[in-house]
Design goal:
By secondary structure, the chain is an alpha/beta fold. The chain has two domains: 257 residues, tm_1862 like domain (pyruvate-formate lyase- activating enzyme, Alpha-Beta Horseshoe), CATH 3.80.30; 73 residues, Arc Repressor Mutant, subunit A (Orthogonal Bundle), CATH 1.10.10. 40% of the residues lie in helices and 19% in strands. It is built from 15 helices and 16 strands. Helix 1 packs parallel to helix 2. The protein is globular and about 55 Å long.
């Protein structure tokens, strides 16, 4: 079943490592909300295929959706739901990305009233010096207090983000411990990457900052894997861990899981991507142009029809990022290609080296201790046309 992703393209300030599309100019936030709702209406009307999709999740990402006023958050959620003919209460998951400094009692109550059932909180670190280095707007104490406040407000489904491999003096071990001791059901952790159009990218290119250490990133990743396993958390995707909820249930992120399994998703807002029936589209990553195009009742986007080769390569890449791995038989049925026939030598090499291991139901996965280099394994199995 499909999900809806809404990109809210505003941030309070620019994190030094981030290259996502956003603007710190929020004066047109109300106009942006109206435009996104209008886009949802247009996509629903223009493509009847969306009208037969069973939406089960809605995700407000960005950017920083928690910057919107409570009234605009409610208008955005209700407007998109009405445009897509869904009831928010019927969805399995309604997520809002939030920064810790926005987790006020008033905001939390408003989000619950608007239909939000899950919070994704960008903490990144609890170390204040590291947060300042990243140009984050919160402190470690604010992060902890905000999460506890959210839990008391009735949000029992909370995920937090951390970044590892950061070249500061912070204690990664302490960050992991503090995160796992908070009332959260889910944890995402990502390696620091140097993107060219960022403050960090500029500093590294000038020699003012060192390149992130691969050995440090590997150590910190493996440490998180070990500690999470000791606590019974499920490591179900390269960068994602879910807490045990009892009786074999875990706090997985349902919306993100649809991306990894190749399901359809409706993307709304500037910079958002969508996918349906082999067609991917990408909205323009420019707020003024996006707003102008909607005022003219048109969609400013690029489109790409995925070939069977494209779909095969993407399914291999995303599948090997998950604990479920890939099934050669399923790949053959859905894309017409299977890895053991695309490149038999590369397939045998991956098995013999231990980069791939067999699991149940004829599936194969990258073992956890090699997951940090899983993209290399996947790319070795690509079909190059």
């Amino acid at each position: 079943m499909a999900g809806i992703y809404v990109h809210v393209p505003f941030c309070r300030q620019a994190c030094h490592y981030c290259d996502f599309h956003f603007s710190t100019k929020t004066s047109n936030a109300e106009g942006m909300v109206h435009a996104i709702v209008q886009e949802a209406q247009m996509r629903w009307a223009q493509n009847p295929a969306w009208q037969v999709e069973a939406f089960r999740t809605l995700y407000l990402g960005g950017g920083t959706p928690s910057l919107l006023s409570p009234a605009l958050s409610k208008a955005l959620l209700s407007g998109v739901a009405e445009a897509c003919h869904i009831q928010l209460k019927d969805l399995q998951e309604v997520t809002l990305e939030a920064n810790p400094e926005d987790l006020t009692a008033a905001n939390l109550d408003a989000w619950k009233d608007a239909g939000v059932t899950r919070l994704s909180v960008g903490i990144q670190s609890f170390d204040d010096n590291t947060l300042a280095w990243m140009n984050r707007a919160h402190t470690g104490r604010q992060a902890e207090e905000g999460l506890l406040r959210a839990n008391r407000a009735g949000f029992d489904s909370i995920t937090v983000d951390l970044i590892y491999g950061v070249p500061t003096e912070r204690s990664w071990e302490e960050d992991v411990q503090r995160a796992l001791e908070l009332p959260v059901r889910h944890l995402s952790a990502y390696a620091l990457t140097v993107e060219p159009r960022t403050v960090l990218g500029t500093r590294v290119s000038r020699g003012d900052e060192p390149e992130p250490s691969d050995s440090r990133a590997a150590y910190e990743y493996q440490h998180l894997c070990s500690v999470a396993a000791q606590r019974g958390w499920l490591h179900y995707e390269t960068s994602n861990w879910a807490a045990p909820l009892g009786e074999g249930e875990f706090g997985k992120a349902l919306h993100n899981s649809s991306y990894w399994s190749g399901e359809a998703y409706l993307g709304l807002g500037p910079g958002a991507h969508g996918f349906l029936d082999g067609l991917r589209y990408a909205n323009v990553s420019n707020n003024p142009i996006y707003l102008q195009s909607l005022r003219q009742h048109r969609l400013q986007q690029t489109k790409e029809t995925l070939s069977n080769v494209d779909r095969y390569n993407e399914r291999v890449m995303t599948g090997l990022r998950t604990a479920l791995g890939i099934s050669p038989e399923d790949l053959a049925q859905t894309t017409g290609h299977r890895p053991d026939e695309v490149d038999p030598r590369a397939w045998r090499s991956a098995l013999e080296s231990g980069d791939l291991i067999p699991i149940e139901d004829g599936r194969f996965r990258v073992p956890e201790d090699r997951w940090i280099t899983g993209d290399r394994v996947a790319s070795s199995l690509f079909l190059v046309s």
